[in-house]
Amino acid sequence: MxxxxxxxxxxxxxxxxxxxxxxxxxxIDSSIFLKGGKVTEFQRDLEQYLGVRNxxxxxxxxxxxxxxxxALGLQADDEVITSAFSFIAxxxxxxxxxxxxxxxxxxxxxxxxxxxxxxxxxxxxxxxIIPVHLYGQNSEMEELLSLAKRHNISVIEDACQSIGxxxxxxxxRKLQSGCMGDMGCMSFFPSKNLGCYGDGGAIFTxxxxxxxxxxxxxxxxxxxxxxxxxxxxxxxxxxxxxAILQVKLKYLDxxxxxxxxxxxxxxxxxxxxxxxxxxxxLENSTHVFNQFTxxxxxxxxENFRQKLLEQGIPTMIYYPVPLHLQKAFQNSxxxxxxxxxxxxxxxxxxxxxxHSEMDNEQLEYIAEKILNLQFF
Length: 376
What we know:
Shape: globular
Largest sheet: 7 strands, mixed
Strand order of the largest sheet: 1-9-8-5-4-2-3
Low-confidence stretches: none
Strand content: 15-25%
């Protein structure tokens, strides 16, 4: 049996090696390593895939969040609401710009930000909300967008784990993840469903004015070379990464289908197990399973992980400490008990291997070993 990996990028590459290598060679032959060339081609391909007016490639997902917030023109100490249960990049971008992160608890079943918690967190200083579409499933965007509109609050989607997930609105519209709010942010970190071979990111928006501002900010505040209209940053997707992503974008739906098949296997294998709570799925959002995250019940998680590791089965904990309890936010005014759902999830969640290259032998082995474990 092939070694079980959390992400098997090597096997994925081997299947499309000739296309990847040829596209990289085109970049080298052209000597267009930044802007234009493959970056522009990938940008247009992604706009078509997402059905969005503007894709602005940037250096990484964290930059996408930071530049998006900069484009809103917020003032020091303006408040931005985001999830307490997520990777730090979202809240980190808020703090780096001198804004105030306001955390909200999440839904215990979907892991995404609770609309009720967001509603309770809104104050006159709230200027933006950043929902995180965690693990590959959209947040309840129709309710969230309606709430934000009533309060004149901007919405920036953190879609770094959810590219390809589709949300269905009650009026029949179907929109891609990251393309529903004012802006959406994407990471092309290698292990993502659409990942490059280094760092990369992008910002999505249907607002042409915001798009122009984002392009300027990401390019030192400049639209015309050596003329700078605002203070910006240097955040660019390089052409070699764009060449890789251009090829992999053609296979994204295939990768998503393969991940869903893995998820279906796990759901069938562990259905009814009293120690494993399977991930919930929204009726109005598809799931792309960037991670397959279960909740353990009446189980010593570390012992459970160690026993699986001894059998050659890796696992990951996304995330072991909620943001409000991280040392980096110790002066934010939050304490243990403020967000009980996030705190409980941090103690119980566990992500199993899932990627596009898994085979039945691996899946059956994982299921057998887990089901034969002694839970304690």
